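Hi everyone,

Forwarding the result from last night's run.
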Amino acid sequence: MIQFSDFEKKIKVVFKDKDLLKQSFTHRSYINENPRTALSHNERLEFLGDAVLELVVTNFLYKKYPQYTEGELTSLRSALVNAVIISEVAGDIGMNDYLLLSKGEARGGQIRG
């Protein structure tokens, strides 16, 4: 069984809502294979997280580079906030080790954004 407390220790963050943490790692395929689970999949959280990450990066770039045009800022943000970069960072901090996947997805390798 996956121990999400190990992930919390690894990233040095303690989550108040452990169910939300577990949901954030739950792929739709896991729910399809385990229909009796009380969990929901992570797609809505992913949608929200992508928007928050984009907002935070936008704010950072806007303040850091006041001389840049909207087009330049958009290009920078696109280079930083995309599925490839997010997947690399997730891999670097070991998030793939905690994903709840169906047996088929788990055999297939990493999930990409």
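Residues 4-108 form a domain with the Ribonuclease iii, N-terminal Endonuclease Domain; Chain A fold (CATH 1.10.1520.10).

Cheers,
N.
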